[in-house]
Amino acid sequence: xxxxxxxxxxxxxxxxxQAVWACVxxxxxxxxxxxxxxxxxxxDRAGLVQIxxxxxxxxxxxxxxxxxxxxxxxxxxxxxxSLKSLSxxxxxxxxxxxxxxxxxxxxxxxxxxHNEYIRYLHTRTFTPLKRLIKLDLADCNLFxxxxxxFIDLPALQELFCFQNNFRRIPxxxxxxxxxxxxxxxxxxxxxxxxxxxxxLTRLKYLNLQDNRINVIHDRAFQDCQKMEYLYLNDxxxxxxxxxxxxxxxxxxxxxxxxxxxxxxxxxxxxxxVELEILHLDRNRISYIEEGAFExxxxxxxxxxNSNDLTTLPFSVFQPVYFLGRxxxxxxxxxxxxxxxxxxxxxxxxxxxxxIPCASPSSVAGTDLMDVLFDRSPEGYCLDxxxxxxxxYSPTPTQESHSTTESxxxxxISKLLLQExxxxxxxxxxxxxxxxxxxxxxxxxxxxxxxxxxxTSITCFFxxxxxxxxxxxxxxxxx
Length: 478
What we know:
By secondary structure, this protein is an alpha/beta fold. It has a domain at 400-477. 17% of the residues lie in helices and 14% in strands. It contains 7 helices and 24 strands. The strands form 6 sheets. Strands 1-2-3-5-7-8-9-10-12-14-15-17-19-20 form a 14-stranded mixed sheet. A two-stranded parallel ribbon has the order 4-6. Helix 4 (396-417) runs antiparallel to helix 5. It starts with 15 loop residues before the first helix and ends with a helix.
């Protein structure tokens, strides 16, 4: 006879088919449970006002989206050792008891987005969820969250907190070294402080677009050296500190569109050697410093559309001359010889289009591709001329007088602007010659292509008190 100490424990193994049957058998009312190997409980759109009292023990995922659940009480879901995914999106949850998620040791994904009545979270709300990887709190009307709310979530990698009411980046994310993705767009965040992103050594994706950010502290991203995607578009930024993006050598996409930037500094992008996409669109940029794009050797797409650019010097653009896509539309382009290189680039690579000219008036409204640049006898590019258009319809006599005076004034001003050292005389002459031909005064100037002398300029100074008609007579007499 065997003693009590010799009794053997018998472990019964339930076949998979019985486990599937058990999942369906214990399915909550008004819910649907899958008959597959993994037990999924579907209670979305079921008209529930509270959490069902019982779930299948084998449940691996539960969907409670789009109900009218208001309260998550202590151990709201019982004990579900296999549950990995829980979704509570689009409910009316207003209060979560600190122990609501006890009994869910395997949960890796928790979705609670679009619960507009959640305005407060207790420090210990998520404490039992040691294996949580993904947490979605988007559009929950949160104004803040406790600084230590994630301290017991060492596995957390993805945090969705967009479309709330945060005025600062939550201090709770500091030191979360496993976080890889943070979504904070469409909040009311006003600044990125030097320690806002402290300790986020594995962060790859940060979205801060559509906030109210007007200042970024120096080296604010210094701990985020694995960052690959950074969205700062649609904020109130007008400038950046010199070392704002220092250390972001793995950054692939940087979005700065929709801000108030007026210039692009050569110091901003020095470390961004792997950057592939740069958005600078929808700003007020009128000037780009030489060397601004110098280190962007991996750039394939540059967005400069919808700014105040009038020209794009080749010296500024040369390092990224062979990038794949360049967006330049909606700028007041001045289509003179400074953009001739761009036209050639457009013709050769066919990767840029829609660059309508704003000036000179002779080519206004014309696409840069269709502008013809004339050449001087020496082979220099000649700018398209500025037309003289009056804003009224004068009588024939008035028209003759006005047109003559306008042309002569234009000629005088262009001559006066061409003063320079003797080495520049030939270039000046080309502009002068082109101007006089268009204005119909070529016959009145004896210098021709060969150039003009200081005595000619003196002569024009002496003519200034005369009327335009008298000046023309004097010129013809000479």
